[in-house]
Amino acid sequence: MGFTLWDEGFLWYGVKEVVNGGIPLRDFSAYDPGRYYWSSFFVSALGDDGIMNLRFSNAILEFLAFYIALSVTCFSKNKLYIEQILLNCVIIFLWLLMPFKAIDIACCIVLIASLGLLIDQQKNYLYFLYGLQLGIVAFFGRNHGLYGLLSILMGLIWIYLNKNKKFDLKRAILLIISGLILGYSPMFFMIIFINGYYKELIGSIIFLFKIKATNLGLAIPWPRLIDISFENFASKSRDVVIGLFFTCLFIFPVFAFLRLVISKIKCRKINPFFVSSTFMSLQYLHYAISRADIWHLSLGIYPALIGALIYLNDYSRRTIFISLSILCGLSLWVTLPEHPWWSCRFNDNCKEVYVGADKMLVDPMTYSDIALLNELVSKHVEKSDNFMVTPFFPGAYPLFNKSSPIWEIYAFYPRDLEFQKTEIQGIKNKNPKFILINDIAVDWREDVKFQNTHPITYQYILDNYQEQPNQPHPNYKVFIPK
């Protein structure tokens, strides 16, 4: 149920390319390679690279993340209340909004758990294991590697301030570095042995510094900035709650650090997983506000969320129940409309469509987009032919088992002349039988339209392709060769 040609399509395209021998980043625009090899292993083992098998590989990670998060929130609680466990389960589950981002959530929760375990036990092998999993996490996503690295530095400071006579800082650092090198060794292997990979990897890092962002930014929806009145209360009140959750992401690290300081001064024992959640919450705040929407809130909320659930363990049963009920209610209000299964059941407007070989329920817009793609492919594309869809809809290619003629399957940002010349050469080589340009102004920004971010490529299309009139969506432009 539910499918998006955008972000989920981006992952699906990469997995299918890896199954067919492609290399992430070198052969196509991609995240870090770990997630593609994880999913490609499962879809290959299952003998089908369809969307449902991809989701199965992500469901494994979702279950792992859910189980670890629940275990961490219950750690060191002398008496567990059944209603507390059930409410924790519901809250943790509700924020698992994007199955195709399960790897990112799993990385975050694994980092919280492993750092908390290290702070609690401080055994030599745990320093090595933390470094090992940090390297593996970085192979799945460099941002998670950076967040984990900054958090372990804070963790070492905390351990040093609370050290026992056996703590050896130099040995701890060496063990972490040793594990990190081993865990990140697949990336070193790719850099050394895969021709052209190092160049694209460095290029992708330089590009982030060039655009000075890791995402297409959105302003933080502070509650005070939301124009709410009696007339629009029903529609805007949810936006206010979302803004409150963002506000809490800023408040929690401040509150949590104060609690750590007080516990240190008063020599009180504090839950090690609350400590690790505190350190991670500061790092994952960046993830949430890199694009301040509900989707990225769900990716960056877990350190603060887990920390809050742990904090409540010290209170009475009544306080725990009331607090968790409020948190659960607010989470339901915010997240339920974003879950495809709820949206389809509640709105009753989803339609059945084949996504590859799998029949799925999708929203009306996605249904219309897939219908348009089916029509264009059946009309213009033979078995050995190709087509091009830009700057969005990377999921169109795996839908028809095709490869993109250009490297950049997601084209949000301005590109220089040399890059566009390379992409134009790819178009010439593949000779796509139609080009679909999704000319939507994302976030109502005209500057991110394709003709403004890739003017040279766009002009080449105008010079060599003919635009087709009467398209079903005013922002879709379809071109066929002249």
Give an account of the 3D structure:
With 482 residues, the protein is mainly α. The protein has 2 domains: 21-341, no CATH class; 363-481, no CATH class. Helix content is 62%, strand content 6%. The protein has 21 helices and 6 strands. The chain has helices spanning 7-19, 34-45, 51-73, 82-94, 102-121, 124-140, 142-161, 169-183, 185-193, 197-211, 233-265, 272-289, 294-300, 302-311, 317-335, 340-347, 364-380, 396-399, 417-430, 450-453, 455-464, and strands at 351-355, 358-362, 388-390, 435-438, 465-468, 476-481. Strand 1 and strand 2 form a beta hairpin. Helix 6 (124-140) runs antiparallel to helix 7 and helix 7 runs antiparallel to helix 12 (272-289).
Low-confidence segments, given as residue ranges, are: none
What is the first-to-last residue Cα distance?
39 Å
Number of domains: 2
Major β-sheet annotation:
4 strands, mixed
* Backbone CA Rg: 24 Å
User: What is the typical, i.e. mean, pLDDT?
Assistant: 93
Give me the strand/helix succession. Answer: HHHHHHHHHHHHHHHHEEHEHHEHHEE
Major β-sheet strand ordering: 3-4-6-5
How much helix is in the residues? 55-70%
Question: How would the global form be characterised?
Answer: globular
Secondary-structure-derived class: mainly alpha
| Beta-strand residue percentage | 5-15%
